[in-house]
Each structure stands twice: as structure tokens, then as C-alpha cells.
Specification:
8 helices, 9 strands, alpha/beta, two-stranded antiparallel ribbon, Rossmann fold, about 210 residues, Arc Repressor Mutant, subunit A
Length: about 210
């Protein structure tokens, strides 16, 4: 199964599988989906579907070779080939994303943030660099940046998107409440936090009405 055919929920569970497989001492070379489900408090059927989608079915009565499964999961999330990422917009949200460590679980490395209000290179709380915009083009070229994150106001988002595309960015994660005009080969993932919270609220309300 191709990666783009795997559900977002499955993608979200893969780092959990990886952490368990890598952080625990295993007394056998193999592990079954049943054991993995029990240890992680997940449904056995769900675990089987996840692993089958990423690495193929386990062997009957044997399960999955642990080393081979770890390698397959790491390949799938890109741990064997890091993708470099930058952020444009070093406000509170941009800085929070810059310092978040969980992206590494998916083979992503946020290298730096950029902001028009910055005059000289500074640092985030974790020590990552925050650059003025004049450094953007050179930084992207030197570091082969693949993904750009937009955390600027909606009024500035299209200009930032144009800059990302001009500098070879191949994918955009946009937190601005707008729709970007980019070439068709550039995928854009929009993140609407208000909508996510409203959806959660709707689930609560519908549950209360039952």
C-alpha cells in the first residue's frame, strides 16, 4: 500500500509502535500483533491493519521479525531520510512549533524560523536559530529545505507562499486562515485550529444529546 493511502490515524500510531519496539528488551526475535496490541492497549484488529499497511502481513504463528519491522516502520515515516523544514513567522505559534521535539518521530527536522520583524539572528528557547527574512533564500539553498510552515497572518500568507515556492519548497503546512494559490505540484496542508476545536465541541454536544 502506498504511503498516501494510509490513514492519518495509522500515521499517528506508527511512532508508538516504533518507541515500544526500540525501547523495550525483547526476549525473542519476533513479535505478534496480539502481543503488540496488548502491550500498547490497542485493538488487535487495528494493529494488524496498521502493520499490514506499512510492512505487509506477519507470518502465521511467528508474527513479525522485530528488527525488520522496525526498519519498515522507520522507512515509512522517513526516519532514514530526514526532511528539512523551515517556519516563516516567529510569533508564539511559530516558536512553539520550532521547539517541539515530536517532529523527529516522522523524519522531519525543523531547522530554523524566519520573521520580517527580526533584524539579526536570534534563538528560540531550545536554541534553534531565528533569522531575518533576508537570510531565507540562502538558508534554503544551503540546507535543501523541502517543507515550509506558514504561521503569519492571513494577509501575508500568499506572499510567504510565493517566497517558499520560489526557493524550491516542495510542500507547505499553512496555519493562516486562508486559501493559497500555489502550483498544482505543491501540496498544501491547512491547519484550522478553531475548526478542530469546534469539531471536538460538536462531538461533546452530540454525546450529551443521546
Amino acid at each position: 500500500m502506498k504511503q498516501n493511502e494510509v490513514s492519518r490515524a495509522t500515521m499517528g500510531r506508527i511512532p508508538t509502535y516504533l518507541r515500544y519496539l526500540k525501547d523495550h528488551i525483547h526476549t525473542t526475535e519476533n513479535i505478534s500483533a496480539t502481543t503488540l496490541a496488548q502491550q500498547l492497549h490497542l485493538g488487535e484488529v487495528q494493529v494488524r491493519k496498521d502493520l499490514n499497511a506499512v510492512s505487509g502481513a506477519g507470518r502465521p504463528k511467528t508474527g513479525y521479525n522485530i528488527k525488520a519491522l522496525i526498519a519498515a516502520l522507520e522507512r515509512f515515516v522517513g526516519c532514514d531520510e530526514k526532511s528539512s523544514v523551515v517556519i516563516v513567522g516567529a510569533g508564539k505559534l511559530g516558536r512553539a512549533l520550532l521547539d517541539y521535539r515530536g517532529f523527529g518521530d516522522y523524519g522531519l527536522e525543523i531547522l530554523a524560523a524566519f520573521d520580517a520583524a527580526v533584524d539579526a539572528v536570534g534563538q528560540s528557547n531550545s536554541g534553534k536559530p531565528i533569522h531575518p527574512m533576508c537570510d531565507f533564500a540562502g538558508f534554503c539553498a544551503r540546507n535543501a529545505v523541502k517543507i515550509g510552515i506558514i504561521t503569519v497572518p492571513a494577509s501575508d500568507a500568499q506572499q510567504v507562499a510565493d517566497l517558499l515556492v520560489e526557493n524550491g519548497i516542495r510542500g507547505i503546512w499553512c496555519f493562516a486562515p486562508c486559501t493559497l494559490n500555489v502550483p498544482p505540484e505543491i501540496p498544501v496542508q491547512y491547519e484550522n485550529m478553531a475548526l478542530s476545536l469546534a469539531y471536538l465541541n460538536s462531538k461533546i454536544i452530540s454525546g450529551e444529546s443521546l
